[in-house]
Amino acid sequence: MWTSSSSSMSLSPPSPYTATAVAANPRTMEEVWKDINLAADLRHSSSRGMIFQDFFARDPPPAGGGGVPSPPPPPLQLPTMLTLSSLLLQQQQQHPPIPSPERHSGGDRKHKRMIKNRESAARSRARKQAYTNELELEVAHLLEENAKLKKQQQQLYNAAAAENRKRKPLHRTSSAPF
């Protein structure tokens, strides 16, 4: 309810809980929450199971068209976050949400990322194994080539030694007399 003084308006709705009342009556959070929910249930008992679209779509009450002026309407209480959250909670209990793929996208993203990481690790291991196999083949080929070259070197050495043995030592056959 909005109150107005002589020329200024108070922008805050009146609260049934004043600072002195709260300080004088310490209550637990559960008691306060129960009182809020009970008050919300009593206020909204006529619109049970109604959503905002239904509330705004329904026909307005007929206007009194007689000569008798109608009494002033009761003060309009704007819905607070507590009443809205309690209504939302009631609606969720009555109509459980349908699981959609978007709701589980966080878990799906984690699962997909985990799978991608595993596949990447498998590819990395495969590359490493292929590189290791290639190096082992190259080592085996180089060992064979080294053995072949050593054998050739030994054959050349033996051939050179045999040729040196066939030559006769140099002797002077005719030399100048001194």
From TrEMBL:
Keywords: DNA-binding, Nucleus. InterPro entries: bZIP (IPR004827), BZIP46-like (IPR043452), bZIP_sf (IPR046347). Residues 107-156 form the BZIP domain. Residues 78-95 have a biased composition (Low complexity). Residues 55-129, 155-178 are annotated as: Disordered. Its main location: nucleus. SMART domains: BRLZ. Pfam families: bZIP_1. Residues 59-77 have a biased composition (Pro residues). One of its GO terms (cellular component) is nucleus. This is BZIP domain-containing protein.
